[in-house]
Amino acid sequence: MDAWATQIQILQDVLRGREGLVTFEFSVPRMGSRIDVVLIIANVVFVIEFKVGYQTYDASAIDQVYDYALDLHYFHEPSHECALAPILFATEAPARNEPAPKWVGRKLIPPVRVGIGELGRVLDELLLDCEEPNIDPDVWIAGRYNPTPTIVEAARALYRKHSVEEISRSDAGGASLQETSEAVTRVIQRSSASREKSICFVTGVPGSGKTLVGLNIANQHTDKDAELYSVFLSGNGPLVDVLREALTRDSVAQAREMGTKKTKKEAGISVKQFIQNVHHFRDDCLASERPPIEHVALFDEAQRAWNKAQTANFMSRKRNLPGFDQSEPEFLISCLDRHVDWATIVCLVGGGQEINTGEGGIKEWIDALEHFPDWRIYVSPALTEREFETGAALDTFEREGRVTRDASLHLYASMRAFRAERVSELVRALLDFEMAEARAAYRQCRDLYPIFLTRDLPAAKHWLRNHARGTERFGVVVSSAAERLRPHAINVKAPMDPVRWFLDGKEDVRSSYYLEDVATEFHVQGLELDWTCVTWDADFRYSREGWKNFNFVGSRWNRVHQPDRQRYQKNAYRVLLTRARQGMIIVVPKGDEADPTRIPEFYDSTFDYLSEVGFQVI
């Protein structure tokens, strides 16, 4: 109340005689926070963060007000073309006596720091310099908000019991997300009502929100005593760890805001029930032949489940179960099949995302269903596309009348690259040597989603720091086989903590912001950054005959001939090239004639190929 009284007194003095609109505590839906003051005068939207009683301008506060303005700029429809001026007002700070920044064609200026007695002058200077048309305050207030949250932001919002409609776009991408969630819910409800067993395959382009669909449905059914109780399962260790830590931190912070106390241990208990590791679920089912408590299991990145050989190898070595003769999908289906009444499995599937030995792709799930003839199968039409490689079994099941096709089960729009939805198409064409398609997709992306190319890693890092604003996250990502980047201070074998890398702030040397630790495809799959630097090594080389695959052993590169390993390596680069929400820079080193493991010819052809796509070189 004291802070509001101070803000009101200041604004009464500054705004006397002006025409416009002032609104306090303006809600920012995606961020789950509120802006102290939004002020609309003539042709400028002023986004003001008051720090009442502060004598200094904290870096975190500068980022905070910048984030507010960026969020409006990106996701609030009337603000896309408005002039936005973020202002940090420390009410006890000495006057800075600095001129306000010039718009120079920009819609959004960097944050302006304002001290005692300066707010009126700064408003006047910004209004005088701005050439945008006047804003209708009523239209602005009524404008549609189309948020595109990161997976971490979305998980936080869902865990706070927000609906998927509140945190997703209401344009084509958002409609797809909501429709898909509703389609899956219908399958679950139909299975429960009809007392039948079903499996549902949800497909989508990278970043389209498959994980969000799973989290949304699991979040709707968290009551262990209810028949529709669901569990979200993922074998992606970094994703599970990052989401759990983010939700735990958020739960503790929320309790603190409400004036109560909650320890991280207390918060973590309920979080672990919401998001579980599929391997723990599997081990519980190995320990007992009883059906699991859940009737609904949602498997994230289901394409990464192990084939029979890999599962048998693991069971023999790690679980002392020699002779195990089921693939991981077959065993997981058998666990839910223990229910005598009904069960539903939801497989969240990304095409071309298998990146590790023994990951069988969606074909393993389809083949496993031969052993469960009474299970109904729900698929999206996209499941038959080439990157999913379902094999012949699905055609057989269709002839038997077991398969239902539903277009709503495919997420067709990328939420991650919210500024350019054709990025995944660009990456697919680039990796498949479809030059005309790659160039066409890039032409549609480049104005809103910059992709640059360089041979200089320090220049790339400088580019990242210059493009990121507020707390937009950036980092360096590399292939796990990129073992000859050590001269560039990149060691893929060095341990890194994904939780720290993805969640900690700019002040922490372990965070992605420091650009010291790097993440591989295993760390970043399912997660995202705003800006990435993809550093390309000689493990994956362009040639006119196709990609050449190598791994580094001892002191030399060895050619990889095994088709599965070639596919995993190609998919690794697919993952790396689709992690950025707003733009990326690709580094292909020059190599070194004096180093036989890094001679220029290992890199030059790849650089030339990427240049042909049209990426701007710096």
3D structure, described in words:
The strands form four sheets. Strands 6, 7, 8, 9, 10, 11, 12 and 13 form an eight-stranded parallel sheet that branches. The protein has 22 helices and 21 strands. β1 (21-28) and β2 form a beta hairpin. α5 packs parallel to α8 and α9 crosses α10. It is 39% helix and 18% strand. It is of the alpha/beta class. It is globular. The longest helix has 23 residues, at 172-194.
SSE diagram, text form:
Elements: H1 2-15, E1 21-28, E2 33-41, E3 44-51, H2 59-75, E4 83-90, E5 112-114, H3 119-129, H4 137-141, H5 151-159, H6 164-167, H7 172-194, E6 197-204, H8 210-220, E7 230-234, H9 237-257, H10 264-274, E8 275-277, H11 278-287, E9 296-300, H12 308-318, H13 328-336, E10 343-350, H14 362-368, E11 375-379, H15 393-399, E12 403-405, E13 410-411, H16 423-431, H17 435-445, E14 451-454, H18 457-467, E15 474-478, H19 498-503, H20 521-524, E16 529-535, E17 540-541, E18 548-553, E19 556-559, H21 563-576, E20 580-587, H22 601-613, E21 616-617
Helix pairs in contact: 5-8, 5-9, 7-8, 9-10, 13-14, 16-17
